[in-house]
Amino acid sequence: MGQRKRTSQSSQPAGNRSNAKTATLLPFLSGSPHLRPPPLESKMAAATEMHEEDREEDPLPDSPPKGNSGASADIELRDILRNLPTKRDLTTQLSVMERNVNGRIDALSSDIKHLGGRILDLEEDRDSLFTHVEHLNVQVAEQAKHLTNLHRHLDDIDNRGRRNNIRIKGYPESDESPENLVELLRHLFNDILHRPEDAKIKFDRAHRALKPRGATTDQPRDIICRLHDFVVKEEILRAARKTATIKVDGCSVALYQDVSWITLQARRLLRPITAALREREIRYRWGFPLALHAQKGNTTHSIITPADVSGFLMAFGLPEMDVADWYGAASTLAPPAQPQRQRWNQVAKKRKAKPQSPPMSSSPGHGTGLRAISPLRSSQELT
Question: How many whole angstroms separate alpha carbon 265 and alpha carbon 326?
C-alpha cells in the first residue's frame, strides 16, 4: 500500500510540470496576435502520431501526449522569444515616429512664420493708418472751429436783421380778419411808455407768427413787429422790463427782443446756467453775437461757444453741467483709448538638440519593462 501511494504521487510526468509552468507565462507574453500560442490542431496532429497501443492505454483521449508535451512547450516558448522586438526594431520604429513628428512640426513652423509675417505687415499698416487718422482728426478739429465761426457770423447777421424787432407773447387774437395790429400795438406801446394813445410810433411792419391759427383754447400766436426807430424800440423794452405785469383784455402780455432760432435754442440750452446765476444773485446779460456775460469782481466772464461753458462754471464755482452744442457741430474730443494688443515679436531660432535614446539591452526579455511590440506593425499605427 505504501508503494502504491508513492507511485500515485509521482505518477505525473515531468513534462506536465514544465507545461504547467510555461502555461502561466503565456498571458504575459502574448502582447500581439502573432505571439499567441499555436492552436490545438498542432497538438492534435502530434497526438495522431502516437501508437494505437498508447491511445488504448490513455484513459483521456483528448489530453496531450505525455512524451512530447515538454518539447512542444519549449518550442512555443522559443517562438515567443523569437518574435519579441529587438533593439533594432525599436530604433526603427522610433526613427519613423521622429520623422513624422518632425515633419509636422516643420509644417507648423512654416505656418507660424507665414502668419508672423502677415501680422508684421498688418501692424505696419496700422501704424501708418494711425498717423493718417491723427492728421485727419486735427483737420476735422480745425474744420469744426471754422464751421463754428461761420455759424456765429450767420447767426449774427440774422440777429442784426432783427435788431428793431419786438416779439409780443400772449396778446389775444381777435375774430376780425385781418387784424389791425399796427393800431393795437401803438396803443399798447404808448400805454407802456405812459404816453398818449394817439402818440405817433412808426412801424415798418407787424404780423402774427407764421403758423396756422389754433383753437380758441390754445395759446395765441406771437406778434412780431418791426419799429422804424431803434431808439424807440429800446425805450419800449426798457419800460416793459420795469413794469411788473402787462394786461390786455385780462391776459398777461410779455415783450421780448426778437432773436434768431439758433440764438433761441442756445438760450434754452443755457437756461440751467442762468437759473444757477439767479439763485446766487449774480447778474448777467446777453450779448450780440450770441454770448452770455457775467461779472465777478472786476473780471467779466463770457460764454461765446460751447467750449467756454466749463471755464465759466469753474470761475463762478457752479457745478458741472452738460450743455449740448447749439450749433450742432460734432464733438471735437478725442475718442477714448482702445485696448491695444501686444506687438508681434519673432522668436530667435534655437538649435534642435538631437534626442538621446536611453541605453537598451540587446538581449530581449531582461527586465526592460517594455510591452512586446510586433515589428510587423506599420508606422501609421504607432503614430
Answer: 7
